[in-house]
């Protein structure tokens, strides 16, 4: 595995059931496309395309982009639509999974991924709609922030994006699944130890059976 | 009517008033009516409110109007793509109203459809819900969002016929079809003007009754940035 971002993306791809409609956020989520079998899923981008595919250099069209404004390809069977229809698909529960990045996730399952107090970020885009509307929410993120502080916290200190609970969290150290009441650590990633996860996490979680043994 | 429909960008923006509320299509510069925006930069209009997903990019598209100090207020979902917006906001030069992108697009669709507002779960419990009415429907909390309408909509399409029927191109469609329905005057900039009958009735996305003026585009977004095509 070339780096931790790819490791996280590859693991996130395993969460996607065949024949799903999937929306990918910016950053690590975008990499998930590399690990999904084209025949078994359709990628949705909120700026108005169902059927996003990889694009060859010689086929780049500046008017065919994803929500990160990066050029994308058009899969066979793709469809275009306007933004109101696109978000109706999201809020209406027609998108099976959204894979999103996060600044923080807390013990209540709340995600913060749109604003940092004191920074000049005045934009929310489709983050709040995706968190409310997608049937399954998978968060992919580095386990700790650049300064080493936990991103999985007791309570978000950044403004939350939604009160909707994120179903799955995948980091470079661990996988957590929401069990209806709290997060359960279900897997350790790579060479991570249980101790390493505990030391870098302030989010309340329980350790799943067989995790961290041996 | 056919002759009155098609005009230049300068003629099209001539009837816009100071202080007008203008919807502008585009996801950043993608699908933005660049020729019409350029005409606004050359006008003496001030105190404009723009309803657009972004305020262009730094110095580009609506970003040029911001630099010129022509904008009083912007309503959109993502101003981060132009760092000058936050700066102007902190200096008190522009008022901003931030909406989730789905709420933003639905508010425009509602405005065009004669609906006063709608309830959505998006943003419930967040900072963007402050001051907004909530309502519990079937046990779940929703937020009331008012519809958006404007005096003028500046939109971009791929083709228009001489009646004003419009078709769009790939993800350049974005907010344009809703905006075509939600303003008193709708001005469409297009790459190509064709004869009536050349567009298949089934492929028309914006029927002509919404469109007041059609302008031939002179500026297009290419891989190497915005280029003039005249």
TrEMBL record, chain A:
InterPro entries: 3-oxoacid_CoA-transf_B (IPR012791), CoA_trans_fam_I (IPR004165), NagB/RpiA_transferase-like (IPR037171). It comes from the Bacteria. The keyword Transport does not apply. Pfam families: CoA_trans (PF01144). Coiled coil: none annotated. Keywords: Transferase. The keyword Nucleotidyltransferase does not apply. PANTHER family: KETOACID-COENZYME A TRANSFERASE, SUCCINYL-COA:3-KETOACID COENZYME A TRANSFERASE SUBUNIT B-RELATED. Belongs to the 3-oxoacid CoA-transferase subunit B family. This is 3-oxoacid CoA-transferase subunit B.
TrEMBL record, chain B:
Keywords: Transferase. It comes from the Bacteria. SMART domains: CoA_trans. This is CoA transferase subunit A. InterPro entries: 3-oxoacid_CoA-transf_A, CoA_trans_fam_I, CoA_transf_BS, NagB/RpiA_transferase-like. The keyword Glycoprotein does not apply.
């Amino acid at each position: 595995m070339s780096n931790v971002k790819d490791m996280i993306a590859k693991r996130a791809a395993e969460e996607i059931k065949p024949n799903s409609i999937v929306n990918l956020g910016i950053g690590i989520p975008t990499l998930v496309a590399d690990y999904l079998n084209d025949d078994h899923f359709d990628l949705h981008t909120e700026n108005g395309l169902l059927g996003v595919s990889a694009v060859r250099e010689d086929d780049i069209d500046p008017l065919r982009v994803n929500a990160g404004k990066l050029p994308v390809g058009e899969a066979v069977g793709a469809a275009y639509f306007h933004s109101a229809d696109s978000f109706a698909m999201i809020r209406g529960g027609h998108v099976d999974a959204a894979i999103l990045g996060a600044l923080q996730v807390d013990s209540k399952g709340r995600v913060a991924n749109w604003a940092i107090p004191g920074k000049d970020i005045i934009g929310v885009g489709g983050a709040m709609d995706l968190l409310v509307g997608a049937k399954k929410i998978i968060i992919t993120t580095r386990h700790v922030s650049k300064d080493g502080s936990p991103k999985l916290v007791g309570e978000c200190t950044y403004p939350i994006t939604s009160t909707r609970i994120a179903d799955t969290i995948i980091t470079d150290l661990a996988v957590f699944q929401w069990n209806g009441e709290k997060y359960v650590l279900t897997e350790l990633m790579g060479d991570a130890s249980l101790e390493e996860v505990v030391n870098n996490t302030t989010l309340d979680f329980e350790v799943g059976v067989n995790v961290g043994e041996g | 009517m056919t002759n009155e429909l098609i005009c230049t960008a300068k003629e099209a923006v001539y009837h816009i008033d100071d202080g007008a509320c203008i919807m502008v299509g585009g996801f950043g510069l993608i699908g933005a009516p660049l020729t019409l925006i350029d005409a606004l930069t050359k006008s003496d209009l001030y105190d404009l409110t723009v309803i657009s997903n972004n305020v262009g990019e730094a110095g580009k598209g609506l970003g040029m109007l911001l630099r010129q100090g022509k904008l009083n207020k912007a309503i959109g979902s993502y101003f981060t793509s132009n760092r000058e917006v936050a700066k102007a906001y902190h200096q008190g030069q522009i008022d901003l109203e931030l909406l989730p992108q789905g709420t933003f697009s639905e508010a425009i669709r509602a405005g065009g459809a004669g609906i006063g507002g709608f309830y959505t779960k998006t943003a419930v419990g967040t900072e963007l819900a402050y001051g907004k009415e909530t309502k519990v429907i079937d046990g779940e909390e929703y937020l009331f969002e008012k519809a958006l309408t404007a005096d003028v909509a500046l939109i971009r399409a791929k083709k228009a016929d001489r009646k004003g029927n419009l078709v769009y191109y790939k993800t350049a469609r974005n907010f344009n079809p809703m905006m075509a329905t939600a303003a008193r005057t709708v001005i469409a900039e297009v790459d190509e003007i064709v004869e009536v009958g050349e567009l298949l009735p089934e492929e028309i996305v914006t029927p002509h009754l919404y469109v007041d003026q059609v302008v031939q585009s002179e500026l297009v977004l290419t891989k190497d940035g915005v280029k003039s095509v005249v």
